[in-house]
Amino acid sequence: MLILDCPYCGVRAEETELHAGGEAHLKRFGPGSSDEDFHDYLFMRENPRGVHFERWRHVSGCGKWFHAARCTQTLEVFGTYSAQTTEPPQQITDAISAKRPGWTWRGLSD
Amino acid sequence: MSEAVSALNGASFAGLARVEETGLGGMITLRGDFASAAFRAAVKTATGGDLPDTRRIAFGDRGAVAWMSPDELLLLVDYAEAAAVTASLARDLAGEHHMAVNVSDARACFTVNGASAREVIAKVAPVDLAPGQFAPGDFRRTRFAQVAGAFWLDEADVFHIVCFRSVAAYMFNLLSTAAHPQARVGVYS
Ligand SMILES: [Zn+2]
Questions:
Q1: Separation of A87 CA from ligand 1 center, angstroms?
Q2: pLDDT (tens digit, 9 = 90+) per residue, B48-61?
Q3: Per residue in B32-53, pLDDT tens?
Q4: CATH code of the domain in which B81 resides
Q5: Closest CA to B71 of B102, B43, B30, B107
Q6: What is the 3-state secondary structure (H, E, C) of chain A?
Q7: How many of the other CB atoms lie within 10 Å of CB of A45?
Q8: Is the dihedral of CA B149, B153, B154, B156 positive or negative?
Q9: Contact at CB, B141 and A8, closer than 8 angstroms
C-alpha cells in the first residue's frame, strides 16, 4: 500500500484515496510541433526500476493534483510537492540523492 | 409550491451506533481566494462564522463553514435560507473571483452517534479515528467505501456526514451494516 502526504491539505492519504496521474513534468508538444516530438509526448514514458516522478490527485480528499517522488522498486517515498512547478524542488532532489546516490531520471540526476 | 423532502425521509438504524438521515440541510459550495478580505467578510455575513483552519469546521450563529480545499469552502446554513444566502454571497462578492452555488438538493446528511461511532466510520473510511487524532471541530473529505463523502465531529461527540443525494441509500446501508450489533470490533474501546 502506497501512502502519500497531500501537500495541499496535509492528509497522510493511503492509495485508495488517491488517483494516479502518470509521469510527472511532461513537456507538452501540440500544434506546430514536429511529428516526432508529438509522438514522443503522446506515447513515450519512463518506466524505471528505482527513482520515479509522478503526478497524483487527492481525488477523494481535497481534490488537488500534486507531485510525488518515489522508488518503484521499494515503494519508498522521497517526498511530495506542489503541482505548480515544472521540475522537482531542491529539497526533493536532495532527499533522493541522500538515499540513492548517482540516481538519474530523464534529464535530472544526482 | 412543491414540498422538498430528503432522500430517505429521515431513515434511522440503531445498532453499535445510531445512524440517522437528518433531513434537508442548506449547503453552499463557495470557491475563491481565502486571503481576500472581501471573501472573508462575505463568509462572515453568510454564516456568522470565520474562515476555519485547514481541515476544520467553524461555527457561526447562522451556520457553519467547512474547509474543503485551499480554495473551497462548504457553507452549512438553514435549508430554507440557502437560496437567499447564495444570492447575497453573489452580491457581496461581485467583482471578486469566486463561485457560489447552492448544492443543498444535491446532498444528503447523516449523523452517527453513540459509543462505537468512531469504530463504525473507521470501518468504511481510510481515516485515523483514534480519539486524539480526530477531535471535535475536525473536518475531513474522504471516501466511504465506494462513494465520496465528508464528515466532521461536533462538540457533543456526534459525527455528521454529507454525501451526494444520489448515493444516500448506499451510504445509509453501508453505515447500518458497519453498525450491525454483531459487528463489534472494539478497536477504540
Ligand atoms: Zn489533499
A1: 20
A2: 999 999 999 999 99
A3: 999 999 999 999 999 999 999 9
A4: 3.30.70.1520
A5: B30
A6: CCEEECCCCCCEEEHHHCEEEEECCCCCCCCCCCHHHHHHHHHCCCCCCCEEEEEEECCCCCCCEEEEEEECCCCCEEEEECCCCCCCCHHHHHHHHHHCCCCEECCEEC
A7: 9
A8: positive
A9: no
**ipTM exceeds 0.85, yes or no:** yes
Q: Provide the whole-model pTM.
A: 0.93
| Cβ–Cβ below 8 Å for B142 and A63 | no
Looking up residue B142, the CATH number of its domain turns out to be 3.30.1360.120
Residue type, A106: R
**Residue A62 near chain B (CB below 8 Å):** yes
Question: CA B151, CA A35: separation in Å to the nearest integer?
Answer: 49
Chain A residues with beta carbon closer than 8 angstroms to that of B143: 16-17, 60
Homologous superfamily of the A3-96 domain (CATH):
Folate-binding superfamily (3.30.2270.10)
Residues B48 and B117 in one domain: no
- Chain B nearest-CA residue for A3: B126
Sign of CA dihedral B7, B10, B11, B17: positive
